[in-house]
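Long-time lurker, finally posting.

We've been working with Flavin-dependent monooxygenase (Streptomyces spectabilis) and I want a structural starting point before designing mutants. I don't trust myself to interpret raw outputs, so I'm hoping someone here can both generate the structure tokens and explain anything notable. Sequence follows.
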Amino acid sequence: MPTPVTIVGAGLGGLTLARVLHLHGIPATVHEAEDSPTARAQGGLLDIHDYNGQLALAAAGLMDAFRGIVLEGRQAMRVLDPNGAVLHETADDGTGGRPEVQRGELRRILLDSLPPGTVRWGHKVSGARALGDGRHEVTFADGGTVVTGLLVGADGAWSRIRPLLSAAAPAYTGKSVVETYLFHADTRHPATAKAVGGGSVITLTPGREIFAHRETGDTLHAYVGLEEPQDWFDALDFADAAATTARIAREFAGWAPELTALITDTDTPPVLRALHALPAGHRWDRVPGVTLLGDAAHLAAPNGEGANLAMLDGAELGRAIAAHPDDIETALTAYERAMFPRGAEAATMLKTIIEQGQ
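Top reply, 14 upvotes:
Generated this for you. Predicted structure of Flavin-dependent monooxygenase:
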């Protein structure tokens, strides 16, 4: 490589890119705002699909490690009505193409696969600017800078690298979710544990939904979705957990108590996640020396594809660079030509699902 590869963001996509480059003998540096791998919880379960996420892990040479962290039985799915009656149920017989893993464990195997020092922790990016001839300068919050000949923004929804390529910004989708957890559910919340089953459960009505899954052991992780403007949520005092959960639970009045317990009996303070998305079909004209992957490139409302697409983006970008190590612009052109429709297809699929549900 005539120039170093600088990756901003140590999420699943950025780490997959670094790993694939490493397998091809191409060094890369990943700059991450968090202070360490354990600086914050890494979210819940991810279903890793055999048509994108698993292809990325295969390209990264990590399928054996991946199989070692799969949680058996978690592909089981139950669909309930608000009264708790089962509308549909699918068992996990081990043949499904979407095995579930803990996001933190998946990130760990990616981190463990990289040479020491690849990730520079505590490097929060404050901005970036073009220097000409495909070179860019990245500035960090502590005042430090780095100049690179190949810059990859893998830094998520609010990417600091995206403005180099596009003026697009994420917009609120009209829906937010509130996260809750129930610990030791089999003994402390048996009715709710039974409703969730061995994998996940979902209950949908217009503008309201509850989705929950069983994580490691008998921990239940729930996502309570409400279609409301942002000021509706701004009026809630999330510092007062009891008042907030009581207010949210009122929106589910009449639902089965084993479902609403996922709101009212939470063992952790409720956490608000406002959902944002980039314009459908978001793309940009080729800019020398810089590109994006994952949510930085094609942020969409949650549809089960985000992490999978980010990893596939990373793997495909890594392979494109390895195929054209002396012609980075050819590599980036090839990568973006495939990545743009891939992201647009996932967003279109979500729109179709929503319209059919309505």
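Before you design anything, note these points.
The chain has two domains: 5-72+99-168+280-357, 171-277.
The longest helix spans residues 328-357.
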